[in-house]
Request: fold
Amino acid sequence: MTTYYRTTNVMDIKVIQGAIQKQDADVLVVNLFAGARPGGATGAVDQALGDQISAAIDLGDFEGKVGQTLLLYTHGQIPAPRVLVVGLGEQEGFDLERARRAAGTAIGTLGRLGTKSAATILHGTGAGNLPVEPAAQAVAEASLLAAYRFDEYRSRPQSQSLTKLHIVEFDSTKLREARRGVRRGRALGEATCLARDLVNHPGGEVTPAYLARAARRLAKTHDLRCRVFSAKGLAELGMGALVAVGQGSANNPRFIVLEHGPRRGKPLVFVGKGITFDSGGLSLKSVEGIRTMKADMSGAAAVLGAMQAVAALGLKRRVVGLIAAAENMPSSTAFRPDDVLRTLAGKTIEIVSTDAEGRLVLADALAYATRYEPAAVVDLATLTGACVTALGHHASGLFANDDDLADRLLAAGEQTGERLWRLPLWPEYREQIDSDIADMKNSGGRPAGASTAAALLAEFADYSWAHLDIAGTAWCTKAKPYVPRGGVGVGVRLLTQLALDWSSS
Ligand code: BES
Ligand code: MN
Ligand code: ZN
Reply:
């Protein structure tokens, strides 16, 4: 057993100086804006191929729309036997997300062709006005993410054949920037793939103890400090909520601490919900509702991925990752509806539903974060079905008690394409979780379910804090250019971007 994670992508990505049409690779990847004529590198390839790309445009076979591709055979006119043209869409409004999608679309086509080596130009650095460094990051990152396959449990692997990707830049003054971008893109791509692996493994494999082993392993390979509290340690510490949620399972809970950077100073703290399987407990889920609940540790996976990325990028600032890991199961030892739990912060919570377990384990993790006197805390959790109802799969819910932190996160969301939408945290939602016998109850009923969950968390956040409800974004059922079906690894790139921006401001 126990491959904690594989380096799924054994893709070698290199930046080289040269003319794209002179490269020797199985496929050359160039691009085209909608309604444009081939120019720059694409124009050079078009010329070398006797205007084949122009002909396809003139015949209406290729328009350069987003997601569109054109495959050409070169018949010895240039060293590479094939050329793939990817559409970039309208030049107006071109951004990094479209650059990532173009790279992802290209990788998808190369995968279906069984290509082993490819050479690509950067997308949008010419007419698209993107700076070279982020454009190079986008291609490296999206290529790794698009090539990702989870085939740990298949007898015959389906993994991509592409092992060599050359990013070709003609202008030698831009090579340094391009290489910096590729380095960052690789770190983020690999960290996101780690998170995906953790999410995709079934709950029988990825238990709280497994998450703890993965964290310890990460600390070794990436020079992080790691501390794990076992079930006994949690009880001694006073984490009554985390203990209660975990007590119905033979797979005992854990609390995991990962630290990067200086030992002193106010850190940025990331907190992840690590429910390794959410059956609902005694408030058992339905046959349909229980499917994919192995992914209820996606917040934890994002924190592990982000810690790997900040370490790999050598971030100077102090960053702490906290993970509350437990399996929510029904049994004779399980916690029950009507129980009252005492949290680490001392506040008590009456249990309405054992299926509202995420906010319970996070309450203890958020209280633990107080001891760091954090500069800011961001928690990620697949917390509520209500958030999925509100935003679908196209944005994570954002809640914050600090507008500046919210704005920083929204900006990081735009930059990474991991979109966020801010939802309210009004006092009325807090009233909805007033309890008759305890300080609060763990469910406020159906109305505004995402906001009442956040209102409970806010009770434990006595610092600058934001909460991301990733229930709708952590799991993908319809493949996108650089997100295959299954675990998305959402939050890794977002959190790392936040930490990078924070360090440079
Ligand atoms: N893990 C679920 C939330 C969830 C639902 C994530 C669907 C991904 C997809 C969470 O623990 C949960 O069960 N929440 C309940 C809360 C309710 C009982 C107050 C919900 O949203 O139904
Ligand atoms: Mn639940
Ligand atoms: Zn849950």
